[in-house]
From TrEMBL:
<dbReference type="InterPro" id="IPR005886">
    <property type="entry name" value="UDP_G4E"/>
</dbReference>
<keyword id="KW-0119">Carbohydrate metabolism</keyword>
<feature type="domain" description="NAD(P)-binding">
    <location>
        <begin position="4"/>
        <end position="333"/>
    </location>
</feature>
<protein>
    <recommendedName>
        <fullName>UDP-glucose 4-epimerase</fullName>
        <ecNumber>5.1.3.2</ecNumber>
    </recommendedName>
</protein>
<comment type="similarity">
    <text>Belongs to the NAD(P)-dependent epimerase/dehydratase family.</text>
</comment>
<comment type="pathway">
    <text>Carbohydrate metabolism; galactose metabolism.</text>
</comment>
<dbReference type="Pfam" id="PF16363">
    <property type="entry name" value="GDP_Man_Dehyd"/>
</dbReference>
<dbReference type="GO" id="GO:0003978">
    <property type="term" value="F:UDP-glucose 4-epimerase activity"/>
</dbReference>
<dbReference type="GO" id="GO:0005829">
    <property type="term" value="C:cytosol"/>
</dbReference>
<dbReference type="InterPro" id="IPR036291">
    <property type="entry name" value="NAD(P)-bd_dom_sf"/>
</dbReference>
<dbReference type="GO" id="GO:0006012">
    <property type="term" value="P:galactose metabolic process"/>
</dbReference>
<keyword id="KW-0413">Isomerase</keyword>
<dbReference type="InterPro" id="IPR016040">
    <property type="entry name" value="NAD(P)-bd_dom"/>
</dbReference>
<keyword id="KW-0520">NAD</keyword>
<comment type="subunit">
    <text>Homodimer.</text>
</comment>
Length: 348
């Protein structure tokens, strides 16, 4: 089965690509490399070399807003008699802070880009899609664990773009309820790395997210972790989030493909998280315990756009996808640290 994986060179995409290839899929990675490194591809190829699966991977450099390239990819696959049967769409921009200063760019890439993709899919009778949505769409939702039916109230342009795409799916599905098969996966906080240490998260510049910041403090690239508030209404005052191991998250995508393959037309919005909430202080303690590294920190004021608590109810994913996250917080720390140690400067 041939899969188009947009954004396949990124942190999440590269882990999905490996899993797909290991399970025998033909994979077309489509990526602009604006926020990822071409070294990722070399790493994937090296890894696959040992397993003789390399020939199933093809990489195309392009921008999701460029409809001509998308059209040529779909057409070429038809000509080869190996049409694209399912798309995993991750290509997009994801910095909350940047989206506040440059909303047009966020709407252009995330919304217009997705529109291009859907138009092209329709033109080529490809109707199966797995999409990377985000827990950010729940915004200030007031109770946990968060269920999919909970009120959507994004508080940033980035979140708005994810909601806009989900609304578009809704209109599309309603327009012909016998056609489209869509899983929109609402990610919580993906962390950790492939246990080989070959691929992992390599944020450009200073990391915004907690986990890569911690591993960079541990390796000496950053001095001190700033904790954004110890006065939240939580048991220790720091923010609580749902961290999910990147391999568990990647497996959720493969389960989604299996689900789409066995389903009639459908549109499902599904949380992918661990279903557990951990505070910033708990994460630091666990990381120190698992790795033996010390993480110096200082308490700073709250960060704009943050919420006190966010963790998922994952019963829908378990029920529908027969998927369950298997890796512990300790595993997330160990694998994240293994990646950082083996790659002190990321893909460098
Ligand atoms: C952030 C994004 C979210 C995105 C997700 C991707 C914001 C406001 N939200 O989520 O839209 O989908 O990443 O993974 O950027 N923290 C610190 N110090 C740091 C960094 C973070 O104390 O240097 C705290 C935060 O206040 C929060 C927790 O750690 O309580 C997790 O933060 P982070 O890793 O940035 O993820 P989210 O804010 O949940």
């Amino acid at each position: 089965m041939r899969v188009l994986l947009t954004g396949g060179a990124g942190f999440i995409g590269s882990h999905i690509a490996l899993l797909l290839l290991e399970r025998g899929y033909d994979v077309l990675i489509f990526d602009s490399f604006a926020n990822s490194s071409s070294n990722v591809i070399k790493r994937i190829e090296n890894f696959l070399d040992n397993k003789a699966l390399k020939y199933k991977l093809r990489v195309i450099n392009g921008d999701i807003r460029d409809k001509k390239i998308l059209e040529s990819i779909f057409s070429k696959c038809v000509k080869e008699n190996k049409p694209i049967e399912v798309v995993i769409h991750l290509a997009g921009v994801k910095s909350v802070v940047e989206s506040l200063t440059n909303p047009l760019y966020y709407w252009d890439v995330n919304v217009s880009g997705t529109l291009n993709l859907l138009l092209t899919m329709k033109e080529h009778q490809c109707y199966s899609l797995v999409f990377s949505s985000s827990a950010t769409i729940y915004g200030l939702s007031s109770y946990v664990p968060i269920l999919e039916e909970q009120k959507i109230s994004p508080i940033t342009p980035y979140g708005q773009t994810k909601v806009a795409v989900e609304n578009l799916f809704y209109d599309l599905y309603k327009s012909n309820v016998n056609l489209w098969k869509i899983c929109s996966l609402r990610y919580f906080n993906p962390v950790g790395a492939h246990p080989s240490g070959l691929i992992g998260e390599d944020p450009k510049g200073i990391p915004n997210n907690l986990f890569p910041f911690i591993t960079q403090v541990a390796i000496g690239r950053q001095k001190t972790l700033s904790i954004y508030g110890d006065d939240w209404e939580t048991k220790d005052g720091s923010g609580i989030r749902d961290y999910i191991h990147i391999i568990d998250l990647a497996e959720g995508h493969l389960s989604s493909i299996d689900y789409l393959n066995t389903s009639e037309s459908c549109l499902e919005f599904i949380n992918l998280g661990s279903g557990k909430g951990y505070s910033v202080f708990q994460i630091i303690r666990q990381f120190e315990l698992s790795t033996g590294c010390r993480i110096p920190f200082s308490i700073e004021s709250r960060r704009d756009g943050d919420v006190a608590v966010s963790y998922a109810d994952i019963s829908k994913a378990k029920r529908l996808l027969s998927w369950t996250p298997k890796r512990s917080l300790e595993q997330m720390c160990l694998d994240g640290w293994n990646w950082q140690m083996k790659n002190p400067n990321g893909y460098g």
